[in-house]
Amino acid sequence: MKPGDIARYLFLAIVWGLSFLVVVKIVEAFGWVGAVTFRALIAAGSLYLLARLFRRKLDFSAGWRPFAIVGATTVAGQLIGLSYAAPRIGTAMAAIFVAAIPLFSMIISQLWGLERTTRQGFAGLVLGISGIVLLVGFPAVPVTFEFALGCVASILAALCAAFGSNYASRHLRNSGNWETTIGAFLFGGLMTLPLIFAVPLERIPVAMDYLYLIIAAVLMSVCTYIAYFRLVASIGPTRAISVEFLVTVIAVFIGATVLGEKLSAMQFIGGITIMVGCALVLNLVPAWMRPRSSVPEIP
Questions:
Q1: Sequence-distant (≥ 6) Cβ neighbours of residue 91 within 8 angstroms
Q2: What is d(CA 43, CA 272) in angstroms, rounded to the nearest whole number?
Q3: Which domain holds residue 130?
Q4: CA distance 240 to 228
Q5: ∠ CA(269), CA(274), CA(277), 5° rounding?
Q6: Is 259 helix (H, G, I), strand (E, B) or coil?
């Protein structure tokens, strides 16, 4: 990769890894609905104002429906799931579930006929699912109803992210990165806004809470999305999405050192199993570890 690509890769890994810590902070103040709603609306608004400031032309000719669907999945569904899950299962486990997004993406792309799954990809899928079973089935904390709901929310968040990514690549391929980001965050924020009446704020926010919210919206949403889309255009989606592996490592380290979270030995093995499975799905394993080329693809 070029120096600029390496810089974007490391930027995404560090910022997205730290984002789990910030999510916990804003959920404590704004609730798991408010954290997503305000973050999304601030992100959409700030990026739109930035486009106006730089006199960047925006083209939303694709229509409102594709932006709404991407916003409902990659923003509302994914971020609601993570905001709900992180305080209940810990940032480390939530991050490991995020690393499983490529597994769900492979299933969706196969069902939609966007890709043909190889034996290597199928093996990665089996490993990934096995890792999720280990991650959920052998926790280091007591299994409560809240813990189970957090795990379900994390899986649904990963599914939403995978669906939204495939949908965007299929229906918004001619839309710009700025338009897709603005549209997704705007619709995502508007869709979660009514839920605030059902899930009110946890407490009266203070100045530091608003600072965390702005950091999450501007730095960890707008800046990272723009950097990620530029990275995809430069090195391709497969290599770009591998940044999730490094994100997971950073998030687990922060969860253990800063938040005092623990993972059982079986969960640790499960996390490694998921990442190996994703590496097979993304074709990121060394050549000598790959199945022989003579193995036919699975139709």
A1: 20, 21, 23, 24, 251, 254, 255, 259, 261
A2: 33
A3: 3-289
A4: 7
A5: 125
A6: coil
Q: Please give the Cα distance from 293 to 159 (Å, whole number).
A: 30
Task: Please check whether residue 299 lies inside any domain of the structure.
Answer: no
The pLDDT tens digits of the residues spanning 15-53 come to 988 888 888 889 888 988 999 999 999 999 999 999 999
Distance CA 221, CA 40 (A): 8
- Answer for the pair 78, 160: CB distance below 8 angstroms, yes or no: yes
Q: Is the pTM of this model over 0.85?
A: no
d(CA 226, CA 8) in angstroms, rounded, equals 10
Q: What is the pLDDT of residue 45?
A: 94
Say if 226 falls within a structural domain: yes
Over residues 185-221, the pLDDT tens digits come to 999 999 999 988 888 777 788 899 999 999 999 988 8
Contacts of 237 (CB under 8 A, 6+ apart): 169
In a domain, 89, yes or no: yes
CA-CA distance, 78 to 107, in Å (whole number)? 17
Sign of CA dihedral 87, 91, 93, 97: positive
Number of domains within the chain: 1
Q: How far apart are CA 141 and CA 109, in angstroms?
A: 35
Q: What DSSP character marks residue 298?
A: P
Residue 9 lies in a domain: yes
Is residue 124 helix, strand or coil?
helix
